[in-house]
Amino acid sequence: MGRAANAVGEWLRSPLTSLHLVLAVFGLLTVFGLVMVLSASAVQSFTADGSSYSVFTRQLMFCGPGLALFWLGLRIPPRRLRALAPVGLAVGVLALIAVLIVGSVRNGSRAWFAIGSFSLQPSEAVKVALTLWGAHVLVARRRVMHRWKQALSPVVPVTALLMTLLVLQPDLGMTVSLGIVLVALLFYAGAPMRLMLTLTGAALGGAIVLALTADYRLARVTAFLSGNSADPLGAQWQANQALYSLADGGLFGVGLGQGRAKWDYLPNAHNDFIFAIIGEELGFLGAFAVLALFATLAYVGIRIADRNSDPWLKLVVATSTSWLVAQAAINIGYVVGLLPVTGLQLPLISSGGTSLVVTMFVFGVLANAARHEPEAVAALQQHGQGTIARLLGLKLPEPYRAPVSRPAAQRGPLR
Question: Which H or E element spans position 106?
Answer without folding.
Answer: strand 104-106
